[in-house]
Amino acid sequence: MKTNVLVAIVIAVVTSLSLSAQPQRMQPYSGKSPREVRPVRPPAGSTTPASTNLNEQQREAMQKIRTEQIKERTQTGNLLREKRAKLESLQTADKPDMKEINKVIDEIAALQAQEMKAQAASRQKIRSLLTDEQRTLYDARGANRGKTRSETRSVRPDNRQVRPGMNNYRGMRTE
Question: What DSSP letter does each residue of 104-136 carry, written as one string?
Answer without folding.
Answer: HHHHHHHHHHHHHHHHHHHHHHHHHHS-HHHHH
